[in-house]
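[worker-b] picked up task from shared queue
[worker-b] task type: protein-ligand structure
[worker-b] ligand name resolved to flavin mononucleotide; SMILES cross-checked against name lookup, match
[worker-b] sequence length check passed
[worker-b] input payload:
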Amino acid sequence: MNETIRSILNRRSIRSYKSSPVEKEKLEVIVKCGQFAPSANNRQPWHFSVINRAMLDKISSANRQVLANSEDENVRQRAKDPTFDSFRGAPAAIIVSGDKAARFAAADCANAVQNMAVAAYSLGLGSCYIASFKIALEREEGFHLLSELGIPQGYVPFYALAIGYSDEELGDRAPRREGTVTWLD
Ligand SMILES: Cc1cc2nc3c(=O)[nH]c(=O)nc-3n(C[C@H](O)[C@H](O)[C@H](O)COP(=O)(O)O)c2cc1C
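[worker-b] inference finished, payload out:
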């Protein structure tokens, strides 16, 4: 098995991180791998916001505020959890936003995130694909954060990749479903 296959097969979502920062050089390589993902018509309808813990705290606390105002008691309870963090405690994350006018923007951005997740793994880093970070960013309460993140007009945040050095005791890996392949010989 070569290194590329090994990285693809061994990458796992990491949900607990050491507080040590991620080296900028590594983040640069990871973003570059995102930029070299395939995109429909090579449109590259993406924007990458590389963010540190201070900004992650800002987004997380805006999310917590939205949840705290929910009409649903269960959701309000989630906001009270002192460990609440939309980025799983990672020291860094890359938010990938897509051009609303590009037909395949969601697929293109997803390709970029997966490239970055595998790249992060190959550099000895853990990562977690996250879609649930947008609670405030999709509401008026969080719109001011879009410009702070450098997200261009007409783009919307799609996915985030939390990145950092793993502090997770790895248990069994998420199993893969059977019966998802048809071979036609
Ligand atoms: C589009 C997408 C959104 C995801 N959102 C979240 C999320 O919000 N929080 C989270 O902890 N994991 C999230 N994940 C990670 C999946 O839960 C994870 O990839 C899956 O359980 C398989 O585990 P593995 O990545 O370790 O192979 C997301 C993955 C994808 C592809």
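[worker-b] attaching auto-annotations
[worker-b] The mean pLDDT is 96.
[worker-b] releasing lock
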